[in-house]
């Protein structure tokens, strides 16, 4: 049944990835102007009807005046802006900080994430909202009972985060940001921007996004391009991965979505500019910061939409009964200043499709 009212902020885009695997997700999200109050009026009746209430009391929530919602991510990803967006979205459901919920946000370095998450889990929050794949990995290691809403996760079924997108099961649900088919779209868009490329390095957080990588490889094979897998854990490994291409010609980079790349964005931008590597990024903010181009979702809009799941879980829905949702609209942003610095002439067809052009 359609999720009337669970709608994304309208984003104009001329292209969307292949949706051949769309049926594995939950009901399609309408793409009118997002209205949390509208969502509130049209509840998830068909999806959560009859679901047993999640046992908050078993985790000691009866000791608190009101439930604690933890928002956790890597430092430098969204921070205060993310908290403001989340608080605003929650308030439209009647969930107000200091009145009937308590929101705790923690933003930390990758090396400290496991320790921070362990501390948060010990405090027995009602719900954890995890921002990004590498963050969610730490949360999964720390708990399999506290309800978790994830945001910005690529291919959650493919990496084993959920058993099924329509009925994820367990203690997790949330919003996926990219499907495997996006890999080919990133490669095609980068190649259109820089036709001279003969090989591309794919920066990904180690152990994740394998199906996206395979889609890039499949698309590259048809055009005779070489794909180099660059799995990394931190800034030093990112520097080494990019540095491995020194002296080679026709090199481009694809940065897959993960908070670790947002915290290391200045390093990636510096290395890509230094070596003249055309690079495509997953988020608008990456191109605004100086990246050549980006093609992807509005990540803060996903965080805003996560408040719906928080509201449903607090009302008794099981996370595993709430389907993972996927976006269908994407933004193309081109940075003409960076293109000029790289000596690239941006094709008119690409400019015509852009949602934003930075000059």
Please describe what this structure looks like.
The protein is 35% helix and 19% strand. The protein is elongated and about 60 Å long. It contains 14 helices and twelve strands. Strand 6, helix 7 (210-223) and strand 7 form a beta-alpha-beta unit. The N and C termini lie far apart (44 Å). The protein has a seven-stranded mixed β-sheet, sandwiched between helices. It has a five-stranded parallel β-sheet with strand order 2-1-3-4-5, sandwiched between helices. The protein is α/β, with parallel strands linked by helices and 359 residues long. It has two domains: 22-178 and 298-321, Rossmann fold, CATH 3.40.50; 182-296 and 331-358, Response regulator (Rossmann fold, 3-Layer(aba) Sandwich), CATH 3.40.50.2300.
Structure described in brief:
By secondary structure, this protein is of the alpha/beta class. It is 35% helix and 19% strand.
Topology:
Elements: H1 36-41, H2 45-48, E1 68-74, H3 79-91, E2 102-108, H4 113-122, E3 127-131, H5 133-142, E4 148-154, E5 172-178, H6 182-193, E6 199-205, H7 210-223, E7 226-232, H8 235-243, E8 251-255, H9 259-263, H10 265-275, E9 279-281, H11 284-288, E10 293-296, H12 299-314, E11 331-335, H13 336-341, H14 348-353, E12 356-358
Parallel strand pairs: 1-2, 1-3, 3-4, 4-5, 6-7, 6-8, 8-9, 9-10, 11-12
Antiparallel strand pairs: 10-11
Helix pairs in contact: 3-12, 4-5, 6-7, 8-10
